[in-house]
Specification:
Layout lengths: L4 H5 L7 E2 L12 E4 L13 E5 L9 H10 L4 E5 L9 H10 L3 E4 L5 H35 L3 H13 L2 E6 L2 E6 L11 H6 L4 E6 L2 E7 L6 E7 L5 H40 L3 H10 L9 E7 L2 H10 L6 E5 L2 E6 L4 H11 L3 E8 L4 H18 L3 E3 H5 L9 H20 L5 H10 L4 H8 L3 H15 L6 H12 L1
Helix pairs in contact: 2-3, 4-5, 4-7, 5-7, 7-8, 9-10, 13-17, 14-15, 14-16, 15-16
Length: 484
């Protein structure tokens, strides 16, 4: 920690005396600069403790001198007495009190070089501590990145090292947070993230200061580091180190994920092609865990973005999931349905079908059934439809809903036009008659009419449709039309 004016004044061998209020004594001292110039602004960088004996200063010139030091950003003023002045000019102390510049009286017995050595030792010690802190942090971040912690571990480590919170964004979406509660800050930073293209931006967020830093990765990622106080030199170096190791770790993860996805897609192709023994042997050799058979097979439709999210969400789950053309396919033991369905529901915008249980040798058939069920789920805007449920719907489930509806409207139009005149319920009567396989008495009883009334209605329907309702094929077509 940098030496402050308060700590320097507390160094008893120096014999320094504070002449102004102690409001600003916690300022760090960057360096010491002795000078007798009345306007040393051109030679200051800010943060210096200026030492002077006041050769050119008096009660009249002191106020302006003090204000020039404040403008230059001086940390404080050490005034040596016993040479040109027996005491520090009162006007200088009064003005310094007004503008907030600490003034330390340096006794005659204390040489300026002693103050310089004290500050120099402190600066050197602070720089050494900073170097040690940076080096240790770099080692910890690197070990975390190459170990089991991965990118998420790097974020947790960084949050501890800077005593703050950290977010990792994929564009404007939070993908990792340390601690987890820091995710709440994500929405507040979205506008700043949209403006940031590359590099660094420092923004306020409530009482915190947030550093936004883009990462050097193939996709646009941004690291956000929030702290209650501005980052010091060591913390800035630590953040830069984290940016470097995160960039490498994320790119490595991306490459490994792409390789895993390619392998899994290849496994699906082998299984779909009937080469289940080879597929399982490859999976076991590659270090993957072979799900216990029989398997449930799932297929999901959805936009590319949500399909990618589903694949990411299924990493680490007890299933094998991969791209399958424009779909996502997954398989695993029977219990694998639950985490997959939960992930799809959480992500949204996905429609799935599930088939099984199937043996590895029957995988191709299960995959086809699951895909048909997924298409049905998409048409009905459902999250998940089972192949058994879909198959139980009969032939109509295999027809495009739009096509089926148009066919039904055209096929039944004459009957519906007749019913709109109020001269009889031909559509309802035909439905009930077909449902009861042409049994007049049963159908009439269900409709609550005499069987002769029902016969007349069916003859009228036959006349309007121009079809022979005794023909099984005609009855089947009309039944489908009534169900659409």
């Amino acid at each position: 920690m940098a030496l402050t004016l308060r700590a320097l004044a507390a160094d008893r061998p120096l014999g320094l005396r504070v002449l102004t209020r102690d409001d600003h004594l916690d300022r760090p001292i960057g360096w010491v600069h002795p000078t007798e110039l009345t306007d040393p602004q051109a030679f200051l960088e800010g943060g210096e403790l200026l030492l002077t004996t006041g050769l050119a200063l008096d009660e009249e010139t002191s106020p302006a001198y003090v204000r020039r030091l404040v403008e230059a950003g001086a940390a404080g003023l050490g005034f040596g007495v016993g040479l040109s002045h027996d005491e520090v000019p009162r006007a200088l102390v009064q003005t310094a009190d007004e503008v907030g510049l600490p003034v330390l009286e340096v006794p005659r017995k204390t040489p300026f070089i002693a103050i310089t050595r004290a500050v120099s030792r402190a600066v050197a010690a602070d720089e050494y501590a900073t170097t040690v802190r940076i080096g240790k942090a770099q080692q910890e971040l690197t070990r975390t990145a190459v170990g089991k912690g991965g990118p998420a571990g790097v974020l947790r480590k960084l949050a501890k090292l800077v005593d703050g919170w950290v977010l990792l964004f994929d564009r404007t979406t939070v993908t990792e947070a340390a601690p987890a509660s820091a995710r709440a800050y994500g929405a507040s930073l979205r506008e700043e993230l949209e403006r940031l293209r590359t590099g660094t931006r420092v923004v306020p967020l409530g009482e915190d200061e947030v550093v936004l830093q883009t990462l050097d990765t193939g996709v646009r990622r941004v690291l956000a580091v929030g702290t209650a106080t501005p980052l010091d030199t060591a913390a800035r170096h630590i953040v830069n180190t984290a940016v470097s190791v995160l960039s490498l770790a994320l790119e490595q993860d991306r490459a490994q994920a792409a390789a895993r996805q390619a392998l899994r897609s290849g496994l699906l192709e082998l299984l779909a092609g009937g080469q289940d023994e080879l597929a399982l042997r490859v999976l076991g050799t590659a270090g993957g865990e072979v799900p216990e058979a029989p398997w449930s097979v799932l297929v999901f439709t959805g936009a590319p973005a949500v399909r990618r999210k589903l694949l990411d969400a299924l990493e680490g789950e007890p299933v094998v999931a991969a791209r399958w053309g424009s779909l996502v396919a997954a398989f695993g033991s029977g219990a694998a349905i639950d985490p997959v369905a939960a992930a799809a529901l959480r992500i949204g915008g996905l429609h799935g079908g599930v088939a099984g249980p199937v043996a590895p040798a029957e995988f191709a058939a299960g995959l086809e059934q699951a895909e048909l069920a997924a298409r049905a789920a998409e048409a009905e805007d459902k999250i998940l439809v089972s192949a058994a449920e879909h198959t139980g719907r009969g032939l109509l489930s295999l027809i495009d809903p739009v096509v089926a509806r148009i066919y039904a409207e055209n096929a039944l139009a004459p009957l519906r036009e007749h019913d709109e005149t109020g001269r009889g319920d031909l559509v309802g009567s035909l439905r009930c008659w077909l449902e009861h396989h042409g049994h007049w008495d049963v159908a009439a009883a269900r409709l609550g009419v005499h069987r002769h009334t029902l016969r007349n209605r069916i003859r009228k329907a036959e006349e309007l449709l121009g079809r022979d309702l005794d023909a099984p094929g005609v009855r089947a077509e009309l039944w489908l039309a009534l169900q659409a």
